[in-house]
Amino acid sequence: MTPLLQVRDVAKFYGARRGCEGVTFDLWPGEVMGIVGESGSGKSTLLACLSGQMAPDRGEVIYDTRDRGPVDTRAMSEPERRMLMRTDWALVHQNPRDGLRMGVSAGGNVGERLMAVGARHYGDIRARAVDWLGRVEIDADRVDDRPTAFSGGMQQRLQIARNLVTGPRLVFMDEPTGGLDVSVQARLLDLLRGLVREMGLSAVIVTHDLAVVRLLADRLIVMKDGRVVEAGLTDQVLDDPQHGYTQLLVSSVLQV
Amino acid sequence: MTEYNFAYLDEQTKRMIRRAILKGLAIPGYQVPFASREMPMPYGWGTGGVQVTAACLVPEDRLKVIDQGADDTTNAVSIAKFFRRTAHVEVTERTVEASLIQTRHRIPETPLREDQILVYQVPIPEPLRFLEPRETETRKMHALEEYGLMHVKLYEDISRHGAISTAYAYPVRVAGRYVMDPSPIPKFDNPKLAGMAAVQLFGAGREQRIYALPPWTEVISLDFEDYPFEPTKADAACDLCGAEDSYLDEVIVDDAGGRIFVCSDTDHCRARRAAGHLGAQGVPYEEGAA
To answer: Residue A29 half-sphere exposure, CB side, CA atoms within 13 Å?
Structure first.
């Protein structure tokens, strides 16, 4: 078996300042990888490099494509990379407004990816949109409402539906539960966990919330100042942190 | 110096515009940037079309200018007058006699010939503009043929109105490649774009873009398999000439709500009446009478 995503010594610099450096890991099919760290630790930079939104200065990001096997995404042509972005990959933004078209109805938002890959039958597109709204617990009668009429939690669920409708294999999530209140967060996490298991998705989740990785991630890497300071199985890292920074991170979680 | 250069623009400018036109013809539907000049008329009055016309005109040309199909509306009259004064070309109202036709929002009903040029005035050349405001992004979408978004607009139409309600500026795909805004012509005119014998040139002055359709180009209006493209018009016949197959304007004729339908193409209507066709409220045609 080949890893779905092989990350080799990825580095990104902003001028002389380090975004991230020396990041290496493998992501296997069906696995969920959590990336945690404080603000400014290079998590989002790393995610942008992995998902092709930003070109890393150094290193390789090798994706196991369906038709050609492992390919370095940096060496791909832009059309190829964008095609991947619309089909095999999904990107869930922290703020649903970045990932949704706010002026387009919920059904149109979910249908966009289908139309982008060539679906041209209105009835089919709509049926699949309604089906996906149901899977993320949005009522079918909201299909023609715009996301502006949705609550924050619903917008985030809509964004997830919009991303998963083409059956991607790899999902990048940037703080998927940021900005939501705790009960909504819990339901969203529950939903995500169900979808990930059911669809056999691989995912890279960036978050500063340790509860999120505890629930979703199989493995974890901890970043500080652009470097990986600790990596391992989620429970192992969270229950027995070795690095001083990880210990600080784990002990900083507020207990109720 | 008291005289304008022929057709107002200087020769270097016309040359620049002709280059853009040639490039546009070579890549049907592709929007070619050009250095649009300040014209002696406001934006939105056809500054793009006027520049394309100026670059194409030769002294032997016969010019026809229409606005919404009519030769006698303000915009059309002003532009015709402009070229009569700056190029001393002959101006005609008859489609069959014209060698160059500048139009706003209509295609003449009379089929055009290979020796004619049709110039469109275009307000917004980018069909994806209202869906994606970033020019950098729309250019990339054209380059990579990412046109799924165009269908999102049509999807929204159907989900909101039960049918594709876009009635004008209906997006088309040109020669299997570029998606193009045909300027705000009614979708009734869309089928005429395809396989037309005349050269079709599109000029957007404020947006500084020229694009073109060479003769006999394949032009397909976008649609869904289960909601096919349908050209629409008012369900009536022209009250002056009785035509049932031409695009109609609804005209209010009194303060009591009286209304009639008339051909939007005034030359087509005149020619039909001259040939003896008579609508419900038409009067027999007399040469020289309105």
So the answer is: 10
3-state secondary structure of B40: coil
The interaxial angle of helices A122-135 and A152-164, nearest 10 deg, is 130
pLDDT band at B185 (very low <50, low <70, confident <90, very high): very high
Q: What percent of chain A has pLDDT over 90?
A: 62
Are B163 and B182 in contact by the 8 Å Cβ rule? The answer is: no
What percent of chain A shows pLDDT beyond 70?
Answer: 100
pLDDT tens, residue by residue, B88-147: 999 999 999 999 999 999 999 999 999 999 999 999 999 999 888 999 999 999 999 999
Nearest CA in chain B to A111: B152
Q: Of A78, A82, A111, which has the smallest distance from its Cβ to B155's Cβ?
A: A111
Residues B56 and B102: their CA atoms lie apart, in Å, by: 11
Q: Would you call B56 a catalytic residue per the annotation?
A: no
Partners of residue A105 in chain B, C-beta under 8 Å:
156, 159-160
Query: What 3-state DSSP class applies to B241?
Result: coil
pLDDT at B288 over 90: no
Residues B173 and B217: beta-carbon distance below 8 Å: no
Counting runs of H as helices and runs of E as strands, what totals does chain B give? Answer: 7, 12
State pTM to two decimals. 0.86
Q: B227 vs chain A: nearest CA distance in angstroms?
A: 7
Burial A130-169 (b: 16+ CB within 10 A, else e): bebbebbebeeebbebbbeebeebbbbbbbbbbbbbbebb
